[in-house]
Amino acid sequence: MPELPEVETVRRGLQPVMEGVRIARVEKRRKDLRFPFQPDFVKRLEGQIIVGVGRRAKYLMADLESGDVLVMHLGMSGSFRIIEPSGETIPGEFHYPRNEDRAHDHVVFWMASGNAVVFNDPRRFGYMKIIPRSKIESDPLLKGLGPEPLGNAFDAAMLAAACAGKKTSLKAALLDQRVVAGLGNIYVCEALYRSHLSPKRMASILAARNGTATEPAKLLVKNIHAVLNEAIEAGGSSLRDHRRTDGELGYFQHSFRVYDRENEKCLTPKCRGTVKRFTQNGRSTFWCSVCQK
Predict the structure, then answer these.
(1) Mind listing the pLDDT tens digit for each residue in 198-207?
(2) Which sequence positions are flagged as catalytic?
(3) What pLDDT sits at residue 239?
(4) Least enclosed by CB within 10 Å: which of 45, 125, 186, 264?
(5) Cα–Cα–Cα angle for 257, 183, 145, nearest 5°?
(6) Which domains occur in the chain, in start order?
(7) How far apart are CA 293 and CA 195, in angstroms?
């Protein structure tokens, strides 16, 4: 499942090709992805100018001139590629080969510029939905999402307030999209590791008795910002299925300090611990029991 940096990387790849450009034609090659397409899906898109390409949590959002928003989710294996008018795919080198089976090209947006934007999804866990901008916040897909972790609303005070009295673990709280939107397993593991906080500790440690943010809360927010910004700068982690639109992989996975490093030496200076893995809330958690307390 892509996390915020991967989705933001895809957004930045789509923006120069789609923003400000009219959708000339939409080719829908099946009746559904994870969910059925709306009956008027094609009609509401064709002829529309995309006035902005944004992101909310793990969703891509294309604002249309009509006031509608095309909301897109990559699912587990969804990716976009851009085909130029010459017929050549915008070039790129990548480590794991992108799926080449065109049978999984499920949606094609033919832009008035001559470019084609193709959505390929072998597992079909991705989905697309058109929502009026005025109803975005109340739609079931986005209703109740917490603040963006890189937005102004997300700070130590907000995190402390959200976690005060919680009887769940730190990791479970950070994965809760109602607490903070867009964080996933990889970056929660990384942020907790950098903060020297055990993923098993109670989330309530982030709030003092009077409700103010504790030092662990301040440190955790700082490291969430750092790890996400570094990952976006590197182009997202792009683990196997997730690609930038030009085909290039992000290489942040080579900067992981704890994730997917089971049985390897802890990278914290002077720590003699070894990275361990255990299952937590159905996800693999990577941590160092020596320096994460």
Answers:
(1) 999 999 999 9
(2) 2-3, 58, 283
(3) 43
(4) 264
(5) 170
(6) 4-138 (3.20.190.10), 156-288 (1.10.8.50)
(7) 10
